[in-house]
Amino acid sequence: MKKVLLFLVSLMMLLGGCGTEAKTFSEFYESGAERVTAIRILDGSTGESLMISDRDTIQQFLSETKETKFIPLKDQSERDGFRYWVDLLEGEEVLLSFGDSQVGDDYYKTEPDIYPILEKYAEQQDH
């Protein structure tokens, strides 16, 4: 009986994974776009950080990324480094922190690829 129970629990864990599921970008920030007052983008290759606080640019960024689908990678082993890391802020409070392939401790691929969007905003800002 214990072997059957152990098998069933193992099977459920294998099929269910760690509970990570595909989500659109907008599903990650439950608090809503209206609370975002700034976007901080950190360039992983240079260490340079920039801040976007213009309301129109923030809305444009959120509009361009809201339907991006984050699809969990099968390999969730820890990785080092990132290309871009983004914080959505309300004042000093971080509402959501994510990278181009990571949200929290979970790793994703994005469709469409979110990297070009992040790169565009990072490059158009005055450093």
- CATH class placement: Alpha Beta
What profile does the largest beta sheet have?
A: 4 strands, antiparallel
- Count the DSSP helices: 4
The name of the CATH topology is Dna Ligase, domain 1
Return the CATH architecture.
2-Layer Sandwich
| Average pLDDT, all residues | 84
Shape: globular
H-E order: HEHEEHEEEEEH
Poorly predicted ranges: 2-17
**What number of structural domains do the residues give?**
1
Helical residues, percent: 25-40%
Q: How many beta-strand segments?
A: 8
Alpha-carbon distance between the two ends:
64 Å
Round the Cα radius of gyration to an integer and report it. Answer: 17 Å
Keywords: Signal
Protein name: Lipoprotein
Organism: Rossellomorea vietnamensis
Key phrases:
single chain, about 130 residues, alpha+beta, Dna Ligase, domain 1, four-stranded antiparallel sheet, 4 helices, disordered N terminus, Lipoprotein, signal
